[in-house]
From TrEMBL:
Single GO molecular function: calcium ion binding
Cited InterPro entries: EF-hand-dom_pair, EF_Hand_1_Ca_BS, EF_hand_dom
Keywords annotated in UniProt: Signal
Protein name: EF-hand domain-containing protein
PROSITE patterns with a match to the protein in the record: EF_HAND_1 (PS00018), EF_HAND_2 (PS50222)
Protein's UniProt keywords contain 4Fe-4S: no
Lineage: Bacteria, Pseudomonadati, Pseudomonadota, Alphaproteobacteria, Hyphomicrobiales
Annotated ranges, domain EF-hand: 29-64, 102-137
Signal peptide range in chain numbering: 1-34
Source domain of life: Bacteria
Amino acid sequence: MTFLPFGKSASGKNVFRILLLACALTALSRPSVAASLLERYDANGNGVLDAEEAKDAAEDSFDDIDKDDTDTLDREEIGFRLTDAEFAAADLDHDGVLSEYEYIALVKNRFEKADKDHDGSLSQAELATRAGQAFLRVLQ
């Protein structure tokens, strides 16, 4: 990679390549979310996340996300995990916050969508899919 002297500008294509490389290096420098989740919650050590392990992860995640200890998650606490539309859809009683019940239901729904082979567990391959990534995002 060539660095340009101050005052010189790179083409948009080069800037894009530099940003892409920076993103890739950042992603490679930390353990994957899926691997971290499995390491922490795969209680029986079988290399997959079953529904009960996912529920345990969701309960812990809810407590971690609930920074103000109100036993609800507001839009600010949810942050990047859900779009506004996803948040509204998960807010079953339309009170502007997610209760633990609503959050667990959301995680369960995402788990079921990611479980492509319907065996009641999520493998590394399933966690790598778009649906698996959506499941992981709500737990971060």
